[in-house]
Amino acid sequence: MSGEADILRRLRELATDPAARGLLDDVAVVPTIGQQIILTSDSMVEGVHFRSDDPAETVGWKLAAVNLSDLAAKGAAPSSCMLNYALTGDARWDNGFLDGLSRALRSFGMHLIGGDTVAMPEGAPRVIGLTAIGEVPNGQPVPSRSGARPGDILYVSGPVGDAGAGLALLNEGKSAPAELIRAYRVPTPHLTLGQSLAMMAHAMMDVSDGLLIDAARMAAASDCAIEISHVPLSEIYESVRGRTVEARLAAATAGDDYVLLVALPKDRDPPHGLIEVGQFKRGEGITLRLDGKAVKLPDRLGYEHG
Amino acid sequence: MSGEADILRRLRELATDPAARGLLDDVAVVPTIGQQIILTSDSMVEGVHFRSDDPAETVGWKLAAVNLSDLAAKGAAPSSCMLNYALTGDARWDNGFLDGLSRALRSFGMHLIGGDTVAMPEGAPRVIGLTAIGEVPNGQPVPSRSGARPGDILYVSGPVGDAGAGLALLNEGKSAPAELIRAYRVPTPHLTLGQSLAMMAHAMMDVSDGLLIDAARMAAASDCAIEISHVPLSEIYESVRGRTVEARLAAATAGDDYVLLVALPKDRDPPHGLIEVGQFKRGEGITLRLDGKAVKLPDRLGYEHG
Fold first, then answer.
1. B206 is in an annotated binding site
2. Helix axis angle, A2-14 to A91-108, nearest 10°
3. Where's the PurM-like C-terminal domain (chains A, B) (predicted)?
4. A interface mutation test: which of B80, B116, B144 has the most A CBs within 10 A?
5. Which CATH fold topology does B153-292 show?
6. Are A82 and B67 in contact (CB under 8 A)?
7. Which CATH number is B2-136's, of 3.40.50.150, 3.30.1330.10, 1.10.3570.10, 3.40.50.300?
8. Is the dihedral of CA B57, B61, B64, B70 positive or negative?
9. What mean pLDDT comes out for the span A226-253?
10. Which of A24, A74, A288, B212 could disulfide-link B301, Cβ–Cβ 3.0 to 4.6 Å?
C-alpha cells in the first residue's frame, strides 16, 4: 500500500525530537531531570466522537486538542505524544488527518515521539488514539478533581454549549454558524491559563462531558455539594438557541467544551478570563439555581461515558 | 450499561499505584528522579492481530506481553501503562480480557495508571491499545536498532516459528499442539535477560514480525549487511513441521515470536539463553546460508506493517 508508506514517511518527518529516535526504534526515550510527567490518553471513534463527514484535518486537530485540554487542566506544559493510528486505506483522509494533527502539534509545542499504525478490516470505523505527555516542575502542585472545599467558587474559562449546538445542527442536517461548527471541530485547549491557575486552584479539570456532569464529578470527588448558578453562553449561541432555561440546560449538558473548570478560594481574585458559575457547599450532589430560582436538574447531566 | 460500570470499577481496582490517582482524575502523574522514561505503544485489532475466537484472557495477556517485549529489548524495567479500551458490549469478553491483562500486569510488575474506554459502533471489530512505560537508570545505555557493527554476532533468545505455526494451524481449522497455541496466544517477554543484555548489546530489538525481516531492519539501521546462518526451532515445531529448509524459512518469517534479537561483539561470551543466528558484515542487505549452503530469500521476509 503506497499510501501507508507515505503516511509512515510523514510520521517520521514529524518526529524530530531526539526522544522519538526517528520512529526507527520500537520505543521512545524521554530523559528526565526530576520533573513530574503528566500522562493522558484519549481515543476518538468515527461515528461516536466524530462524524464521518467531519474534515480529516479537524479530526487530527481535535484529537490533539482534547488531550492537550487535559494537560491544561493540570497546569502541565505539553512535551510529547504517542499516536495510535488505524490506517483507513484512504490516503487522502490519512494525509488530511496528519495535516491537522501536525498543525496542532506545532501550535502547542508537542512533539510526536512514538506510537503505532495498524491496519483495520474493511469497513471498520476509524479509531485513533493519542497519549499526550506533559511536564510539571517538581514541587509544583498538579491540581486534581478532589481538592475543592465548601465555600470555594467554581469558575469556567469560557462559555459552554457552542460545540454541542454546532454538532446538533450538523446532526439535524441544518446549516450552522461557522463559529459553532468551529467550536465542535477545532477546539482550543486553554494551556496558558491552566498553567497560571495550577498554583492557586483547589481543584481543576476540563469540561469535556458537560458543565453539569463535570461539576458534579468534581463535587463528588471533593466530598462537597455544588450549586450551579450561572451557565455562560456565547453571543452566537444565544442568537441561535436563545437564553431560556431550556437553552441553558442544553448548553450545560452538551459537552465537548474543553474549557477549564476550576475551584478557587472565595477570597481569591480570579484571573482574567474566568467566569463564576457556582459555589461549593457542605453536603453532596449538584443543585441548579438560575435567575435566582431553583431549577429541576435534567435527567441527563452530560455525555455519559463511552 | 451495567457491564460498562463493572469494567470501570475493575479498572479502578487495578489502578492502585499513586500515579494513577485512582483513575478518578483525567491524567496520571509519574514522579521522576532523573531516570530515563521508555515508552512504547502497540494496538491489537480483532481479525488482524488476534482471532475472534482467541480466548479474551489470552488477548489481555498478549497485549501486555507484546508491549513488555519492546521494553525488554531496551533493558527497561516495566513501571506502568495506559490502556485504551474499546468496550465491546460483551461483558463476559471484557471481563475475560481484564483477567488476562491483570495477570500479566501482576506477573511483570506493571501498574495500570490511566487510559480511556470508548464505545464502538455495533459490529465494529475490537481494538485495544496499550502504552507501556518503563524505566532505565540515567547513564545506562538504551540499546537501539542501529548500533550493530561489522563482525558482531547476532543472537536470539529462543527458538522462532512456534507462534506462527500455532496460528497457521488454527487458521487452517486443524488441531495444534498446546505448546504452539500457547506460543501464539500467551508469549512471555524476556525482561530479565533484556536487562542483563542492555549494558553489553551493540543493538537490540525484539522479533515481532519475523526473524528475517527484523534482522534485516537491524542491519539496515546499523548500515551493515547481515548473514543469517541458523534458524533455531523448538522440538515441538520440528515434530510438526520438520526441519527442512522450507520449514525453517516458514519459522523465520512468521513473526509473533517475542524473543530478543541482539548484536554482541564477536569476542564477547554470550549470556546463557542466547542462540547464535548470524553475523554482521560490511555492506548492506540480508543473506541466508543454511547447512553451509546459500539459500534464496523468500519473497516475504516477515509480517509487513499493519
1. yes
2. 0
3. 149-231
4. B116
5. Phosphoribosyl-aminoimidazole Synthetase; Chain A, domain 2 (3.90.650)
6. no
7. 3.30.1330.10
8. negative
9. 98
10. B212
